[in-house]
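does this look right to u?? zinc ion version
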Amino acid sequence: MKDEYRKILTEFLGKCWHEQGNKSRFNPWNQTQTFICAKCDACINRRPFDSWQDLGDLKRKLEGKKQWATFLKSAFESDLDADGNAIEDLDESARSDGEKFYNPDFIGWLLNPKSFCQLVADYLKMKP
Ligand SMILES: [Zn+2]
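got this back:
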C-alpha cells in the first residue's frame, strides 16, 4: 500500500503519522538506532495495513463513526482486487441484482485484510 493511503488510515485511527526529525534512540532489543518522530517523540514505526488487526481496528472505527454502511456501499461498488487490479470475472448483471454481495469469492476478497484496508483508504479519500 502506498504511503499516501497508510497516512490516511493512520490518521483515521487517531494515530500520529510520524515524521522523521533529527533525533534517534538506541533500541537494546535489536541493537538498532531508531529515528524519533518530530511531532510526538515516539519511535517511527508505521503500520503496514495488511493484517487482521488492521482490518479489525478499521472496522471498529468505521462503526464507531457510524460510517460502516456507507463504507460497505462504496466497497460493493468497487471492483478492484487486493493489488488494485480490476476483478475481471465480475459481470455487470451480477453486480446490479445483488448476487455479487452473496458471492463467496466477493466476500472472501472483502475479508482479505490487504484489500479491506485498501478499500477503507479509497473510501476515506473519496469522502468529501
Ligand atoms: Zn509521531
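The longest helix spans residues 113-126. idk if thats expected tbh
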